[in-house]
Amino acid sequence: MESIKNLSSRQISFIMNTALIFKEKDYRSEDLKDKIFGLLFFEPSTRTCLSFESAIHRLGGKVIKYNSNYSSEKKGESLEDTIKTIDMYIDVFIIRHPEKNIISKIKKFTNKPIINAGDGDGEHPTQALLDLFTILKYYPKYPNKIAFSGDIKYSRTIHSLVYLLNKLCPDIEFYFVCDKLLEPSNELLSSLKKFKICNDLDYIIKFIDVLYVTRLQKERFNGEIIKSYIIDENLIKNSKSKLIILHPLPRNEELSKDLDNNPKSKYFEQVENGIYVRMSIIYNLFE
Ligand code: CP
Predict the structure, then answer these.
(1) Is the model's pTM score more than 0.90?
(2) What residues act catalytically?
(3) Among 40, 41, 47, 157, which is best to mutate for testing ligand 1, by the most ligand atoms less than 8 A from CB?
């Protein structure tokens, strides 16, 4: 799974349905006991890495973790030689890397399945699937209006989720609330039917169904100083009763902790759903 764009509606619905069964049953099995998964994270991660590991354990699979800080990469080994080597040890690659579109390069060095666990400021397809799973619980027929705030330019989670929602329901209205320097690319906007770029969260909070918040990806900035929009109790007091607040996490100052116990906040539910959706993704690789 390189990009969310490559998944068919049928595959997406299969992943959603299987994830729901896994969640409802708190499913554990030995279904993948003969499979070895390689977790290769060239960028930091807590949720994606560990939820994949948990998902693999719950399905009886085995995990090998590659740590770039303690590997022969430090002695100058190329990515190509690293992939060709690990290819002999495992059945499936799960890769996070700081370079956008790296998966299409890595595909040349292995014939094993590769799951993109985040490629730079490109995509994060498995996060988008768990975001969708969370949204569908509250909006089974899709929300009408969804706002994204924070770092639209560099947020791979936003890119994948926008492509996914637009593929499934092109009538959704997308609102992008961000600094001028962090606006979405023309490539993303040209794929959408209905969108607005705006900076007035106080106004749009009254009518949106979903607010998807992201942190500023300062590690991808070139020295720019950009202020975050702050999402807190005060901002959402005029929101719809059915509003849900999502965040892929980790968070910085943009999402106030005073919202953590608010029933509209669903970001820790997203974290939990990550296990079931990732179980479903790896399970469906072998179906
Ligand atoms: N949402 C997400 O990708 O979190 P991690 O960076 O902790 O994996």
Answers:
(1) yes
(2) 47-48, 75, 96, 124
(3) 47
Nearest of 138, 187, 149 to residue 166 by alpha carbon? 187
Give the atom of ligand 1 at the shortest distance from the alpha carbon of 51: 8
**Ligand 1 lining (C-beta closer than 6 Å):** 45-48, 118, 127, 248-250
Closest CA to 254 of 213, 220, 203: 213
- Per-residue pLDDT band for 27 (boundaries 50, 70, 90) equals very high
pLDDT tens-digit profile of 204-252? Answer: 999 999 999 999 887 878 777 787 889 999 999 999 999 999 999 999 9
User: DSSP E strands: which ranges in the chain?
Assistant: 36-41, 62-67, 92-97, 114-119, 145-149, 173-177, 195-198, 210-213, 244-246
Structure token digits, residue 180: 């001028």
Atom 6 (ligand 1) nearest CA: 45
